[in-house]
Write a structure and sequence with these properties.
Layout (H helix, E strand, L loop, with lengths): L18 E8 L2 E4 L6 E7 L3 E7 L2 E7 L4 E4 L6 E4 L3 E8 L1 H10 L9 E4 L2 H15 L5 H20 L12 H13 L7 H8 L3 H12 L3 H19 L4 H7 L5 H12 L3 H6 L1
Length: about 270
């Protein structure tokens, strides 16, 4: 039996993010996937590969296609037989976050092993996490946390029917507190859990209520506040571009410039020139 590739990290005692991503080569032959305390979604990358998959006593066979994923619940392992070497994009989600999301949605979820699933929303989350990882997470923890919540909501929706009425928007006074907190901490790597605590809700509940109240996802709202603060600094002319990027919470000047061009249609030098 073949061991799992060494690039799959050993268990860590450090605090784990709500969601992380790992691109992992998968060898041909038979192997048991490593036990991970997180729920793992394995998105197949590349050409089709015939496989067999065993979870408990059940075994399934088929061909893995690009973008299809399997589900390995936290604390479990599955046995794979790969006819060819392959590559997987592993999305690893904190079980506590999935449970909290399900509770906020008024549902229960007992995540079950699955294979050969195709869902466009989960694929998009996977590709966005992969892009963030390749670019060293320019969106910061807030964007990754938002993707974690989107993934949890989608998994709950796929596995459990709705039993609750739609949520109401975030109350105005709570929204004001959140906006004041964002403006006071723009230079920091804000997290979804941090902003949710300010509002007094769980991260998954806050994310939905915030979008209902503002019409904008929370990570996009924070980016727009960063861009506006940076624009004002550029017009004042007291700070250099690198200082402004750090002052407004961007990962680096090119990240700030990219979002200015996207939201304002202007580069930092064009804004500064007036």
């Amino acid at each position: 039996m073949t061991d799992r590739p060494s690039c799959y990290p050993s268990p860590s005692t450090a605090p784990l993010p709500l969601l992380d991503v790992l691109t992992s080569p998968v060898p041909s032959g038979r192997f048991d996937s490593p036990v991970d305390e997180r729920h793992v979604l394995c998105l197949h990358l590349g050409a089709p590969v015939p496989v067999s998959y065993r979870a408990g006593k059940a075994e399934r066979q088929g061909v893995r296609l690009h973008g299809q994923f399997c589900v390995v619940p936290g604390g479990s392992s599955t046995r794979w037989t790969m006819s060819l070497p392959a590559t997987s994009l592993l999305l690893r989600l904190a079980p506590a976050h999935l449970r909290a999301t399900a509770e906020e949605m008024g549902r229960t979820v007992d995540l079950a092993p699955a294979i050969h699933i195709r869902d466009p929303q989960i694929e998009r989350i996977g590709w966005m996490m992969q892009a963030e990882d390749h670019a060293a997470y320019p969106g910061g923890r807030l964007f990754a946390d938002s993707l974690a919540s989107a993934l949890a909501v989608r998994l709950v929706a796929l596995q459990s029917p709705s039993t609750t009425a739609p949520a109401r928007a975030l109350p105005a006074w709570r929204l004001r507190h959140v906006i004041e907190y964002v403006d006071a901490h723009l230079d920091q790597d804000l997290t979804l859990a941090e902003l949710a605590a300010v509002a007094g809700f769980s991260p998954s509940h806050f994310k939905a209520l915030f979008k209902l109240a503002t019409g904008t996802p929370v990570h996009r709202f924070v980016l727009e506040r960063r861009v506006e603060r940076a624009r004002l600094h550029l017009l004042e002319g007291r700070l250099g571009i690198t200082e402004i990027a750090l002052e407004t919470g961007f990962a680096h000047p090119s990240h700030m410039a990219r979002w200015m061009r996207r939201l304002l249609g202007l580069s930092p030098s064009q804004i500064r020139a007036g």
